[in-house]
Design goal:
The chain contains 14 helices and no strands. By secondary structure, the chain is mainly alpha-helical.
């Protein structure tokens, strides 16, 4: 793991992505102490950006800057927790299926395929509407609907690693399958698991914002999704109050951009051919110098 992050730092794309991600971490966990109460009605409704309210106010007179900064904490926590749980469950289920094989693989693969066949968006909407509103329920909904595709990818990688010589040597030495899974196979899938975590986090942030925008989250909790919900509820597009939704939307897009840059850098680390692509296509013909024969030299005047 340390080697991967050290190698990531050598990638310019990854450095930019990690710098942006650090900015959002500071914004989420330090910024709330520097801004006011996001739920306080301390301004006129739909007041544009000014010296008193840098990003204006909402339809209820709440400070948009405070809501954007404080909302980052809830959104990031849900995204990171969901991404971690999705990778953990996917690694355990996919790793066990690929390592044990046989009937265990058949049963776990059937379970994975059932969750993959289920329509994701309708299932998320139904579960989010049925469960009590809150960040915990949101994490549960996103993990339940998002772990299967990750488990399928990790299962395929585990099946490949199972054929390697070091796994065969561990089997001959009498190591248990649990030890082979956690000592031999999962550590060799670290790069893929980190990439899966980044993808799962992007999925979690987008799905959470989408569900809360539909009003299926806890509307009393300040997050980027509820910010967009209240902006839509105040008819911000019709009134031209762009400042109530543009800062939140820009932060969501910039966070996804940062995670994508880190993922590109990780791809270059795990696959050096991406960092130094080889030339594709026919090799150009370069004529070599031809030394004239004695006959041709003699024919010259």
């Amino acid at each position: 793991m340390t080697r991967i992050f050290t190698s990531l730092w050598k990638s310019r794309q990854a450095r930019v992505g990690m710098g942006l991600l650090l900015f959002f971490f500071l914004m989420a966990f330090v910024g709330p102490f520097l801004v006011g109460d996001p739920l306080a009605f301390d301004g006129r409704p739909l007041l544009g950006p000014s010296a008193e309210h840098w990003l204006g106010t909402t339809g209820q007179g709440q400070d948009v800057l405070a809501q954007t900064v404080v909302g980052a904490r809830t959104t990031l926590l849900v995204g990171l927790i969901t991404g971690s749980l999705v990778v953990l469950i996917g690694a355990l289920v996919g790793g066990l299926a690929g390592t044990l094989g046989g009937k265990t693989d058949d049963g776990l693969s059937l379970l994975i395929n059932i969750f993959l066949v289920l329509p994701g968006l309708p299932l998320m909407v139904v579960l989010a509407a049925w469960l009590p509103a809150g960040p915990v329920s949101m994490c549960a909904v996103l993990v339940l609907t998002g772990w299967a595709w990750n488990a399928r990818v990790l299962r395929a990688q585990a099946l490949t690693l199972r054929q390697r010589d070091f796994v065969a040597a561990a089997q001959v030495s009498g190591e248990s399958w649990i030890r082979i899974l956690f000592v031999e196979i999962l550590p060799n899938m670290t790069g893929l698991m980190v990439s899966s975590f980044i993808g799962a986090t992007i999925y979690a942030v987008g799905a959470q914002v989408g569900l809360e925008f539909l009003g299926l989250g806890d509307l009393g909790v300040v997050s980027w999704g509820t910010n967009l919900y209240w902006a839509s509820n105040d008819q911000a597009l019709l009134t031209g109050s762009w400042w109530t939704f543009v800062p939140t939307g820009f932060c969501i897009a910039l966070l996804g951009f940062a995670l994508t840059l880190i993922n590109f850098g990780l791809d270059a680390v795990t696959n050096p051919k991406l960092a130094h692509p080889q030339r594709v296509g026919p090799t150009p013909f370069i004529p070599s110098a031809v030394t004239p024969s004695p006959v041709s030299r003699a024919a010259k005047p």
